[in-house]
Amino acid sequence: MGPGEGSDRRAAFIDLGTNSARVLVVSLRNDGVFHVLSDQKESVRLGEGEFKTNMLTSDAMDRAILVLSRFTQLARSLGVSDVMAVATSATRDAENADVFINRVKKEAGLDLKIISGLEEARLIHLGVARGYHLGNDEALFIDIGGGSTELILGGQNDFSFLDSLKAGTIRLYNDFFPSDYVGPVSRELYRDMKRYVRGRGVRSLKHIRSSQFKRVFASSGTARHLQEIASGLFPDLIDVPVDGPVLSLDALRKVSRVLCPMSADEREKVKGVSSRRKDIIITGAAIMETVMEELSLDRVTVTDRSLRNGMLEDYLVKHGLIEGLSIREESVLRLGRSCGFDERHGRHISKLALDLFDSSGKLGLHDLGIGARELLYYASLLHDIGMFLSFSDHHHHGAYIVRNAQLLGFTDMELQIMSSLVNYHRGKRPKKSDPMISGLDGWGIAVVRKCGVFLRMAESMDRSHRSIIEGAIFENEGKRIRLSLSLREPEEWELERWAVERDMTDFKKIFGRTFSLLAV
């Protein structure tokens, strides 16, 4: 099924920040599957010149309204029925905000809503956290905007602390430099900016220091640009990404030392510095460096997800389009449904595969752990996802889709394991020399080989797609193992019996044991 086909509605999410405006347009189905139709960003500098007077300038309002008008026209051209638009720091702090909101309504035909700093922080948490698998871990989220910096502590679904500091890239630039200043920045002035940030965040930073968190994410264009600059200047200081690109404090300090003595035009020539940020990249570095130093952060993971993603997730929840699932399961089901997979069959295969995993674990046949069990579950759900392209090679097509669909919440290695399980659920058995698994570590290869047997056996138990075999449990039978099968139609399982008996050879090769069959 292609984007938009069978969709229930189309929606647009507009985030008007102090520095940039973003629009995300998606096609939504009633089962929660969505397709991105457009994702755009424009520099508006709405907060330029505001923070000394608390007034939005006419030029800044004109720029923003022009961009918002284009975003609105884009949404209409794509058949959008719902447009959600929010404004953040620059608008909420402006004394003439009502004038601007009325102009947006009249000239752009858009109902722009101002949100508080805490609501902004909540949506950022929702947008970023839902893109990663946090499990039970608490994480710190940092978002440096043009007018404010949001600091959040939270887990996968809930937050424990939200704050919005009045310290953003444009706000600092307005406070510390004359209008249109494009010269170098002295180390003394840079230290003054850092002292200012510490003062603004003293209470929040103290609270966060006393908290326990295992992971740190930095969203926003500022974090992304700083990471790109560091990668270009100091590639030896860049860590191997796991959840995403990494920015270390050591690399960040070196970046600020390189950029501060330069004029804005000279900075623009540095790889990673955009023309739109050549002046405010220094203030962004001062904010990020201060937060990392005050919280003793060696490194942060940089993410592209942000407030607009939180607006989408909030919309899905409020309209009952997603279930109360983890981001991993939710993204797996979205992918499967978008490809029109046989969900009933997928769920039945996953149940049988987990029955085999759990019961064999109890017999001491493996100790792969809960992480392997979860990956087996997701791979089982998606094992036939390649069917919509080709039946004969659907395992290969399915493996490619799983590997390249950018499923949310998974590491690269987890996606490789799931892709391998899908690939080997039929056809040839995995060998250590196979390119598909050559990059996996010992645990990953063991998961593919052992869980691959469980998935193949589960598929054999439902060859007719009629759920004739309802359950499967390994049990001890003296020196051998018995596989007890619960049958819904005892007289109709010959096809499944033949297929399972054929799997006995693979089982013995991997586990070194044989088993007998008992149908009940």
Short description:
The chain has 520 residues and is of the alpha/beta class. 46% of the residues lie in helices and 17% in strands. Helix 14 (343-362) runs antiparallel to helix 15 and helix 17 (412-423) packs parallel to helix 18.
Structural commentary:
With 520 residues, this protein is α/β, with parallel strands linked by helices. The chain contains 19 helices and 14 strands. The protein has helices at residues 58-77, 89-92, 97-108, 117-129, 169-176, 187-200, 202-209, 221-233, 249-259, 264-268, 281-294, 307-318, 327-338, 343-362, 370-381, 394-404, 412-423, 442-460, 494-511; strands at 9-16, 20-28, 34-43, 82-87, 112-114, 139-144, 149-154, 159-165, 215-219, 246-248, 299-302, 469-477, 480-487, 515-519. Strands 8-7-6-9-11-10 form a 6-stranded mixed beta sheet, with helices on both faces. A 5-stranded mixed beta sheet has the order 3-2-1-4-5, sandwiched between helices. Strands 12-13-14 form a 3-stranded mixed beta sheet. Helix 6 (187-200) packs across helix 11 (281-294), helix 8 crosses helix 9 and helix 15 crosses helix 17.
List keywords for this structure.
19 helices; 520 residues; single chain; alpha/beta; 6-stranded mixed beta sheet; 5-stranded mixed beta sheet
C-alpha Rg (nearest Å) = 27 Å
Percentage of residues in helical conformation? 40-55%
Main structural class: alpha/beta
- Percent strand equals 15-25%
Q: How would you describe the shape?
A: elongated
Tally of strands: 14
Low-confidence stretches: 1-7
Largest sheet: 6 strands, mixed
